[in-house]
Structure formats: C-alpha cells, structure tokens
Amino acid sequence: MAVLTPSQPAAAPPEPQQAEPPPGGGPRPDPRFVIPGAALTLLAALLLGFAAHLTVLGHIEHAHAQQAGFDDLRKELALGTAPVGRLDQNGKQVPTGSPVAVLHIPSIKLREVVFQGTTSGVLTKGPGHLRNTPLPGQPGTSTILGRQWGYGSPFNHLDELKAGDPITVTTGQGQQHYRVTGLRRAGDPAPAVLQSGQGRLTLITATGGAYTPRGVLRVDAQLTGTAQPAPAAGGQISTAERPLEGDPSAWLPVMLWLQALLLAVVAVTWAYRRWGRWQTWIAGVPVLVAIVVALSGAATELLPNLL
C-alpha cells in the first residue's frame, strides 16, 4: 500500500523591502516638490534680504558708517589733513567714499557726515559730495546728494526747509554758513547766476512716495560769509554719480554672490542627502543667510542713488 505524505506547505512570498530612511530619520521627500520649494524659499529670502537692506540693515549700516566717518574726519581736522579739493596733500585724487565734511541743518535736526562721491554705494554711508563741484564754502555751486528713504533717510525732511533756514557745513577750511533761498522741483526756474566770489550750496534728493522716487528736489542756499580759497574744481563724473542713477559696476559683485549662492545650495543639498535634515539646517542656514544678505546688499546698489 502506498504511503501518503502530507504535502509541503508552499513557501511564503518574500515581503517587499522597505526603502531605507534618510540618515536624519523620517521619509525621504519627493524631489518633485523639494526643488520648487527650495527655489521659492530662496526667492523669498532674497526679497526679504533686499527689503531689510533698504530698511533695518541699511539704517544700521548707515549709522556705523556715519560714526566711522566722523571719527576719521575729526582726526584729519585735528591734524590739518582734511581734504579741501579734488586732490589730497599728496596730489592724488581724494578716494571715493572718504569723509570730506559735516552737514548740520538745525531746523530739520540733521547732522550728517558727507562723503566724497555720489554713487549708490557711497550714498549708503550718508550724503555725498558731487566730485565735479567745489567743496562747501568755496566760490561756485557746491552740490551734495542724499537719500530720501533708504539707508538712514538723511534727506527725508529736506522738503520742510524754508527760506532763511541756516545751514552749517564744516570742512577742512572751517565752518561755512549758508541761508536757504528756496526749493526747486522739475520745471521751476534756476537761481540767479552767481557773481564772482559768491558761493552756493545745493542739496539734492528724490521726490515721491516711500521707496518710489519720481523726480528730484533741489534746495539752494547762499553762502553768507567770505568764500574760502579753492583749488581747481570740475573734472569728469560717471553716469552712476548723477541724480537718480544706479551703479552698473554693482553687477559684478551681484553675479559673484549669485555663484556663491548656487554653490552653497548644491552643498546644502548634498549635505541633506548625506547627513540628514537637522544637521544640514544647523550647518547650512547661517551660510545661506550670510550669502543672501551680501547678495541683496550688492543688488541695492543697482537702484537709484537717491532712493
């Protein structure tokens, strides 16, 4: 008789393998959503950094530059080496961004260090002296440009000045005193031509709403004392030094910082896949923030210098 043996149970099908979680724990995010999300996050960060530079960070930067400029100019005044023209004591051009004067307007509570040059970058420090005009106190028309809203808003209340308001400017030749003669906007007549030996101060800023410059406001003031001896003025200025112009040379640092941001994003992405989420955020966020702040600061120099 044949012996019947119980049939062997069928082997159970292998269980599907689970995907290994990333080192940081938790499921791995879908790349289809990670890349657009990271791009939007970076764009938002750039916009926030841009706005911060024109407001909070810009005001802090302006205050620091003013304090440093005041200390440098005070030392030069004490030593008798403060600039009195386009050239310094060694016959070289006064470097752009050097402090050259202190502007004081009591009626609008303004006291600002004035720097040489009027590019958008220089005007982040404070008002700037137009390089092809004489310094305040000298014969001719001395011109100073200043921002209306960004970076300390030094000339925000310039439109409140009235005829007769006093203005004092301290330079390497001492204190120079002026009286406001009037305000000019687009279409207003120019002031009378100066006679020989007379001096005028013209302050320039933007008109329009907050961070939306639409035109130029000029405040003219007449020198009340005796004009100081003046070296030769004049010379060429770049387009970037004219009112309401941006600085095209800022494109180079903008492109370099963009490249640095791209490299940082690649490094952070690699670290995320290698280390995990929290380790990457702790190490990568400070680097990304620093690059975004530097990039947005460079980009603001492309905007109009009177903004």
Description of the structure:
By secondary structure, this protein is an alpha+beta fold. It folds into two domains: 35-53 and 249-300, no CATH class; 59-73 and 93-245, Sortase, Chain: A (Beta Barrel). The chain has four helices and eight strands; from the N terminus they run ααββββββββαα. It has helices spanning 31-54, 56-79, 251-274, 277-300, and strands spanning 99-105, 110-116, 128-129, 140-145, 166-171, 174-184, 199-209, 212-223. The chain has an eight-stranded mixed beta barrel with strand order 1-2-3-4-7-8-6-5. α1 crosses α2 (56-79). The chain starts with 30 loop residues before the first helix and ends in a 7-residue tail after the last helix. The mean pLDDT is 87.
Tell me the span between the first and last alpha carbons: 108 Å
DSSP helix count?
Answer: 4
Strand adjacency order, main sheet: 1-2-3-4-7-8-6-5
Number of domains: 2
Q: Characterize the largest beta sheet: strand count, sense, and whether it forms a barrel.
A: 8 strands, mixed, barrel
* Overall radius of gyration: 30 Å
Number of strands: 8
- Topology pattern, helix = H, strand = E: HHEEEEEEEEHH
CATH architecture designation of the largest domain: Beta Barrel
User: Which stretches are low in confidence, meaning pLDDT under 50 for 5 or more residues running?
Assistant: none
- Quick one: CATH class of the largest domain? Mainly Beta
* Rounded average pLDDT: 87
Helix content: 25-40%
Structure classification: alpha+beta
Strand content: 15-25%
The CATH homologous superfamily of the largest domain is named: Sortase
CATH T-level fold name of the largest domain: Sortase, Chain: A
Task: Write down the overall geometry.
Answer: elongated
